[in-house]
Structure formats: structure tokens, C-alpha cells
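User: C-alpha cells in, sequence out, please.
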């Protein structure tokens, strides 16, 4: 049987992000996109369309859709279809004039322009790796001392994700699956008493209990 995160939890997530006092700039969630793809101090990523295979482009777009897509998997997106959660408060669309399938090149432009003034990345001919002080920069310029709830982040990112169970999952079973998926997606490895360190983006851990209300 197929199960999804409940509509109630997705709406609660949207409400949460609308009231979260972090910087609305797209750079915060483009950083998360880069982490999803695999960027590190030593492993580079690039948004140069000509350097990417079709498989990579598809993966990039799917990750971008999970982070900010305003359409479901049955729709064919055009423009005005991306809004990252930190933009909910001001209803800021990302690159509204660009068609979704052409957005990768615009991400390259956004990151390189922003990186000139607030450098998170080492840029070697558009091959990006993380600077050693990227953690402090994220904290100062984008998080501004705030934390992002893991439960609400998970509800948003996995809002369209189908989970298959042979039987109706209980709270513990569904929580375990959600936690495993989100940790794998965003390389969450280190656990500290009640907190997860997600690439330094400290994310408040609520054990995903609210997300245990599933819908078929």
C-alpha cells in the first residue's frame, strides 16, 4: 500500500516557514541543493549545463522540485513554478521568467553572482567546492541565529513522495522511514542530544512525530 505525508503536516510546514525569520535569499536553499547533489570541501559540483549529462540534469531538476516545486509529478511545469520555503513569507518565486527545464543555467548565474560578495564556495571555472568557513557564513548571513525544524523541513521536501508499506505503518515505523530518507538525501550524519547537524545547518530534531499522521 502507498502512503504519503499528510496534507495537514504539509500545510503546517508551509505556515512554519512563513513565520521563520531566516534570510529569504535563494542562496540558502541552493546551498541545500548543492549538498543534495554531493558538494563538499573536496568534491565539486557544477551547474554548467554543457558539462552535465542528461541523467545529471534530470537528478538536479528532481532535487530542485523537491526543494521548491509548486507542481506535482503529473504536471508539465513552465515558468513561475519554484518557490523555496524561506521565500514563503514574501512570496518570492525563484527565477519566475525562466522555464523549469532551463533553470540549471540560471542557478549557475545566481550562485556565482552571490558568491562574489558572500563567498560560500571555492569557484574553479564554475566547478564549486565548499569553503572551509562556509558554516560560519551560513550562520551569519542566512540563518541569522535561527534553526530549521527537521520535522517541517521533512514534511515539505517529501510532500510528494510515496512510501510503500505492506501494512498500515504505525507512528514508529513511519517515523523511522522518514528519518532514514531525509538523512540520506541531505547527508545528515552527526547526531547531538536532540539536535542533528545537517552540513552545519543546525536543524531542530522533533523526532518527526508530527509526520506520523499518514495519508493513503
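Assistant: Sequence out:
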Amino acid at each position: 500500500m502507498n502512503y504519503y505525508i499528510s496534507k495537514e503536516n504539509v500545510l503546517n510546514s508551509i505556515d512554519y516557514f512563513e513565520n521563520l525569520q531566516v534570510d529569504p535569499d535563494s542562496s540558502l536553499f541552493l546551498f541545500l541543493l548543492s549538498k543534495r547533489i554531493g558538494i563538499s570541501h573536496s568534491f565539486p559540483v557544477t551547474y554548467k549545463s554543457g558539462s552535465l549529462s542528461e541523467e545529471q540534469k534530470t537528478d538536479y531538476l528532481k532535487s530542485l522540485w523537491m526543494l521548491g516545486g509548486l507542481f506535482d509529478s503529473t504536471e508539465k511545469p513552465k515558468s513561475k513554478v519554484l518557490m523555496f520555503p524561506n521565500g514563503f513569507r514574501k512570496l518570492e518565486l525563484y527565477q519566475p521568467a525562466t522555464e523549469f527545464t532551463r533553470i540549471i543555467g540560471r542557478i549557475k548565474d545566481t550562485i556565482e553572482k552571490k558568491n562574489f560578495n558572500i563567498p560560500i564556495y571555492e569557484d574553479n571555472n564554475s566547478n564549486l567546492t565548499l569553503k572551509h568557513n562556509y558554516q560560519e557564513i551560513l550562520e551569519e548571513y542566512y540563518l541569522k541565529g535561527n534553526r530549521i525544524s527537521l520535522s517541517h523541513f521533512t514534511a515539505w521536501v517529501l510532500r510528494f513522495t510515496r512510501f510503500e508499506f505492506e501494512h498500515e505503518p504505525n507512528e514508529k515505523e513511519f517515523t523511522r522511514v522518514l528519518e532514514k530518507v531525509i538523512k540520506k538525501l541531505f547527508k545528515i550524519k552527526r547526531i547531538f542530544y536532540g539536535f542533528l547537524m545537517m552540513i552545519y545547518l543546525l536543524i531542530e530534531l522533533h523526532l518527526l512525530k508530527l509526520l506520523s499522521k499518514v495519508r493513503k
